[in-house]
Design goal:
Distance between the termini: 104 Å
Mean pLDDT: 80
Helix content: 40-55%
Radius of gyration: 39 Å
Structural class: mainly alpha
Order of helices and strands: HHHHHHHHHHHEHHHEEEH
Largest sheet: 2 strands, antiparallel
Number of strands: 4
Strand content: under 5%
Length: 409
């Protein structure tokens, strides 16, 4: 008999005569005995074969122990599937990770066990002692799942990127759990899946209103999770978050043609920043606090990944024809045969546009060219086009100087 089966025989106090009978019948391991009978009813029909001579009462304590022994052996081999090439005795079978059932969370390993209430209370008391000015409420306290995940990183001495979806506060986590509990009854497969796998609530990043307020709330929850676990000082993490916010929501003049990052660009940059932190921490000579200080003060990863992007200009309508239309010809007024007098234009620097758009590209107009004084020709770094301001507020942009402009402005 194998060791596992012998331990179970001893645990259920199976007598030596019954052990000899089981061994004689070939039941020498948990698999042969657990799968020999397909049900408890089938075991009761054949249980007298397993009893020594003179034992006929199927309700005796001996039969009860045999039923308990069969139930334990059967449960060992009926819970996970048995591979076709498995040998005797059975080897432990690895269970699949929850990521195979929930690919949207980017979770690639088994969820760590949740922290006990005693550990949570002890960490909160230490946090309040070290930072008496910080308030831990339901909106700033990390969810128990996020908290446990960060604590697991401390225990395993590894820093890994935590997806945005899992950065939930205690209030958000509880609200999602309550929403799920109010749903209608689910099927047996859904209930069984919920028992087997920890279905972690997640933030829906597709409906996030990306703003500084959202960033402050989310970063506060993640920051408190690391500080509560004792991985770094609060002020070091605050300086890191302040630099990220500074480059993420930078205020830019519209004339520069630039904008700050949008939600998807921020999510991608955040993942790369935490990958750099993880790489530093994995070298062994850096603490997590030193990694944050390095990224905040020394390195330029944050500023380069969150640098302003070019703003795509709106396509402007084509400029109006400065010449009016007569009866048969073109002119600024109505007269005989459609010809009339056009209004002359006097060059005035106050009535000029300094830039315009050529093929949807912003260009700076040459003022000397429009005054008839530019002698650089094709080597001029500025664009040669009429800078006369029209009634619409846009430049003329025709291939003539402003001093030669004709028409209304």
């Amino acid at each position: 008999m194998d060791e596992e089966f012998q331990d179970l025989l001893q645990q259920f106090h199976i007598s030596d005569p019954i052990k000899d009978i089981l061994n004689h019948l070939g039941y020498d391991c948990t698999l042969t005995f657990g799968l020999a009978f397909s049900s408890m009813q089938m075991l009761d029909q054949n249980i007298q074969r397993l009893l020594p001579p003179g034992e006929d009462d199927t309700t005796s304590p001996v039969c009860a122990r045999l039923r308990a022994l069969w139930s334990r052996c059967n449960s060992i081999h009926m819970s996970p599937p048995i591979p076709s090439a498995q040998t005797f005795p059975p080897t432990p079978i690895a269970t699949p990770s929850p990521s195979t059932f929930n690919s949207s969370s980017n979770w690639h390993e088994t969820l760590p066990p949740k922290l006990s209430p005693d550990d949570v209370t002890a960490m909160k008391q230490l946090f309040e002692k070290n930072y008496p000015g910080e308030v831990l409420d339901s909106h700033s306290t990390p969810s128990i799942r996020l908290w446990s995940l960060v604590h697991q990183q401390k225990v395993s001495k590894t820093i890994k990127y935590i997806p945005i979806q899992l950065r939930l506060s205690e209030h958000q986590y509880s609200a999602m759990i309550e929403t799920r509990s109010s749903k209608p009854l689910r099927s047996e497969i859904q209930l069984l899946s919920q028992l087997c796998w920890d279905d972690t609530p997640e933030m829906d990043i597709t409906s996030v209103r990306f703003s500084r307020d959202w960033f402050n709330r989310t970063s506060t929850v993640l920051r408190n999770a690391y500080v509560l676990c004792g991985l770094c000082h609060l002020q070091v993490f605050k300086a890191f978050d302040a630099k990220v916010a500074e480059h993420t929501f930078v205020q830019l003049d519209q004339e520069l043609g630039l904008r700050h990052v949008v939600a998807q660009e921020f999510f991608s940059a955040d993942k790369k920043i935490w990958a750099a932190i993880s790489n530093l921490y994995s070298q062994g000579s850096w603490s997590f606090e030193e990694c944050l200080h390095e990224m905040t003060v020394v390195r330029s990863d944050i500023s380069s990944l969150l640098q302003p992007r070019p703003r795509i200009p709106k396509q402007l309508p084509p400029p109006r024809d400065p010449k009016g239309k007569g009866h048969k010809g073109k002119g600024g007024g109505k007269g005989k045969n459609g010809k009339g007098k056009t209004k002359s234009f006097t060059f005035d620097k106050k009535n000029q546009c300094t830039y315009g758009f050529n093929d949807n590209k912003k260009v700076t107009l040459c003022m000397k060219y429009n005054a008839g004084e530019c002698k650089r020709g094709d080597s001029c770094p500025y664009f040669h086009a009429c800078s006369a301001r029209l009634q619409s507020g846009r430049p003329c942009m025709q291939q003539h100087a402003a001093k030669d402009h004709r028409g209304s402005t």
